[in-house]
Amino acid sequence: MTTQPRVETSPKVSDEIRQTTCYMCACRCGINVHMKDGKVAYIEGNRDHPVNKGVLCAKGSAGIMQHNAPSRLRAPLKRVGPRGSGEFEEISWDEALDIAAGWLEPIRKDNPEKLAFFTGRDQSQSFTSFWAQNFGTCNYAAHGGFCSVNMATAGIYTMGGAFWEFGQPDWDHTKLFMLFGVAEDHDSNPIKMGIGKIKARGARVIGVNPIRSGYNAVADDWVGITPGTDGLFILSLIHCLMKAGKIDLEYLSRFTNAPVLVNRDPESPDYGLFLRDDTGAPLVINRTTGKLAPFDMKGVRPDLGGSFQMGDVTHVSVFQLMAEEYLKDAHAPEAVADRCGIPAPRIRAIAAELARVAFEEAFELDQQWTDFRGDVHKSMVGRPVSMHAMRGVSAHANGFQTCRALHVLQIILGTVEVPGGFRFKPPYPKPPEAHPAPHCRVTPNKPLDGPHLGFVHGPEHLALKTDGSPARIDKAFTWENPMSSHGLMHMVISNAHAGDPYKIDTLFMYMANMSWNSSMNTRGVIEMLTDKDEDGEYVIPRIIYSDAYSSEMVAYADLILPDTTYLERHDCISLLDRPICEADGAADAIRWPVVEPDRDVRGFQSVLVQLANKMKLPGFTHEDGSAKWKDYADYIVNHERKPGIGPLAGFRGEDGDKVGRGAVNPDQLNKYIDNGGFFLTHVPEEGAYYKPWNRAYQDWAVDLGLFDSPQPYLFQLYCEPMRKFQLAAEGHGDRQPPEHLRQRIKDTMTPLPIWYETDQQGNEGFTVNALTQRPMAMYHSWGSQNAWLRQIHGRNPLYVPTKLMRDNGLSDGDWARVTSPHGEITVPVMEMAALNDNTVWTWNAIGKRKGAWALDEDAPEATKGFLLNHLIHELLPPKGDGLRWANSDPITGQAAWFDLKVKIEKAAPPDDLEQSQPALDPLKSPVPTAPDALTWKVGK
Prior knowledge:
Elements: E1 16-21, E2 30-36, E3 39-45, H1 58-61, H2 63-67, E4 77-79, E5 88-90, H3 93-110, E6 115-119, H4 125-135, E7 140-141, H5 149-159, E8 167-169, E9 176-180, H6 188-200, E10 204-208, E11 221-223, H7 230-244, H8 249-255, E12 261-263, E13 283-285, E14 292-294, E15 307-310, E16 313-317, H9 318-326, H10 333-340, H11 344-360, E17 363-365, E18 369-370, E19 376-377, E20 380-382, E21 385-389, H12 391-394, H13 399-412, E22 422-424, H14 492-498, E23 506-510, H15 522-530, E24 542-546, E25 559-560, E26 571-573, E27 585-591, H16 604-615, H17 632-638, H18 668-674, E28 678-682, H19 695-704, H20 720-729, H21 739-748, E29 768-773, E30 798-801, H22 802-807, E31 815-819, E32 824-832, E33 839-843, H23 860-863, E34 901-907
InterPro entries: Asp_de-COase-like_dom_sf, MoPterin_dinucl-bd_dom, Mopterin_OxRdtase, Mopterin_OxRdtase_4Fe-4S_dom
Cofactor: [4Fe-4S] cluster
Subcellular location: Cell envelope
């Protein structure tokens, strides 16, 4: 008789569960961290969490390997060799803080703008901006300028919010879901759950993306659009809908500025601006009286076709201007099909499907609500079409206008903030007027005069010095990029190196891998970071960097402040910052040290508090110089942005029984820990939809502290601030753009969304589109050091469409030379049929530099892995006009990553068949290479 082995079918997983928030991407899901003997044994999703409801992806599950990564930095480091040598010595925290303060204090006393403080993918921007503001520098921003500022800014200016962190589809009611340029890393668990929910109901999914992977692979209809032409396609859909009369006229008249009157006299200094009353309220024609009325007057019924003569000046409605523009034959499907790569009949079919679902499958919810004019509505009308978009449409030099066009498409269908459509997540929606304008006045030894970032409403808000030169090192909020709400992180190093607009003294960065995958000009930036002047001094004199891992950027800093992993520190996912809310409620969350570090590292936010205390920064210290907070946890609990409002909305008040507004609760963090690491309060049912105009929602938002008073507003199909910049370019007003920018401003900053070709289209000989996309199993560059995730994506081929494979005689595994006006790579290729015929692409951030991330020099990421970044530049190729233009959207400054044009040809295999080109010299790492086998035992 054979004896079967005894198998433990119910092993003890853990002896304790600690609940916190994931940090393996920006979803910020709730996780249960299982502990054995005080160590992390297993990570699963928290079923009670409002974001993921227990679902956890490969990244989240692999967090245990991120926490134990061999590449973790061990202690503060001081550079002792040349920059780039990787030669450091470990120092104490006392010495590290002394060095940092010794560099920073003289700057603050003499000229605070000499500090450029820019942070990467952290989620504590309300705190880091508070630190920079109290230091006094105008040079602060986070990574949004090279990520998705076009999407965020276009959404705020058009409708008070955008996709991803601002809103979500109404998964419970939508019947048609359309994605534009969405890769798998974005909001991945909620989108996967949502797609599963709607497909179970038989709802249809349309994916618009040059690449068919991930969400687009499960779409019912894939539209393999030509990169950079999304706006052309969207405006053609608008053309078809308007021509067919398939638009929601009632919605447009009540809730948008479509009926607002616009000055149409070209000789008037107010040409293109709204007609307003004495209080500044935009005016409409009241259908019931035929007379002028403010848009928000009780009982007003705005006339979409209104016009009004005042003296010699004719004023017409925004809707009339839209009809004049979008009914032009230039927007017809037949006129755009070839450029978009989408046949005209298919464009018409998609428009017809949008119209059919929006209007023929409309429904009503039996829920009464009252709007901001006082009108009572007996029900809520549902239009079950929803949309989502991200970097694919955003990261182009025409991306801002494309994103605005997409929002206009949603709005004319009446599908925003209605059942079945797109819904905002609290604290959004917020119109641009509810946000601050940018501030830039620097005073020695004083705080900055206000928040760094914000929303401009005209030339008066530009960040310019008295002589008209840029106030900020990245040239944000200037005539070059007037509406750059997130700053231009990708321009900081090149501008600082060039001394344009001025030299800086210290570059201080957090988790921004600017010498590798976060750079638009990898080799060039490395040279800038190591370049010396004629006196033998570094052109950028000092670089302070904080990271948790031995990334490529570490070697190019002078002082390293090692961060913890996300399981070892406090973090605050705040309503003041990047919220985790879902549309039905306001939520925030924390991270907390579920384990203590086994290295001499500190959470970066706590290090900033300690630096502020050392320098006695206002805002961080009392009048007597004593510290307000000892670390970031202390700040989270005890800081009040204004009375009763702090970083966390939950468990406020001395007894922890207040929501949103309330006194400081010393036990607040423990309350969050006891509640699973998060707080959630639901929107009242009457306020669930129509949030910008719904009195019940507005009153709830005021009670919660999201607003100080109700903030109803109209969706801005016509963006008046953009017209103000055009007026300046036409010669009106006190602030005038430089001559070389006048025409560009007139051409691109149109108040109705347009489409224009990007500057890289005309590069002779470079005709193939080249893109990168993040895989679902990776988010940041740190993912490809993860022992589990590396098994999914250990290398990245260049994916080439069948047509280009045949044209160039390529087969899977062959090597190709890919060139751009800036650089060249030689990489292995793989055929992909589900790909736009003139587009090549690869996974982003898989390629690693040898010596970084504790990877072996023969690791696949460091050999066959590669970056497209070697082909990109932060500046456009010379145009022959004596100027160098930024490779950015001319309105917001968003990095135009996806405008890259290349040529591809078959190449002989490299001498070393395992080595993609270019191959940079290995870095010397401050941490040893990982062992061949990464094993350990947790518990007994």
